[in-house]
Predict the 3D structure of the following.
Amino acid sequence: MAGDLLDAPVGELLESLAGENPSPGGGSAAAIVVAMAAGLVAKVARASHSYWDEAGGVIGQAESFRARVAPLAQADAEAYDEALSALRGREELAEAGCDLACLAALLVENGNPEVRADAAAAAILAESGARVAAQLVGTNLGATADDPRVRHVESLVEIAADASERALAAAR
């Protein structure tokens, strides 16, 4: 896909992901999913001002995540052949997914009950993005389970999974 993935229509992006070219691939898809989760967190926080005093701060954090993570979709696609340079973006993506899942869980617990389901969806999406990024770190490094980078991203996935489960439980 020529150009910036973020400027592509969704249909074109999906076609590109399903295409024969090696990129964009899983890392790009994970970055887009985490950016989408950040958008949902910001939306739910905006609807939660009257329910939770800290909602304004969550909006700022979510927008910061979205601004930081969305460009990683394009960076990952461009850096596919240079796995080690993309690795840093993938570790960052795992961290952002983890942090965002935790923010989304806080919104489910404290935000507007009418949009809890969106916050829970954001937690699940953020966890999924963190999982994909962690998997790609190990795969692209050819690393073993005792590699500190692999252990680090796996711990982030565990935290994201706990936050996602907490969000789901609170949304019920």
Remarks:
- Helices lie at 10-18, 26-46, 55-78, 83-110, 116-141, 148-171.
- The chain has a mean pLDDT of 90.
- The radius of gyration is 16 Å.
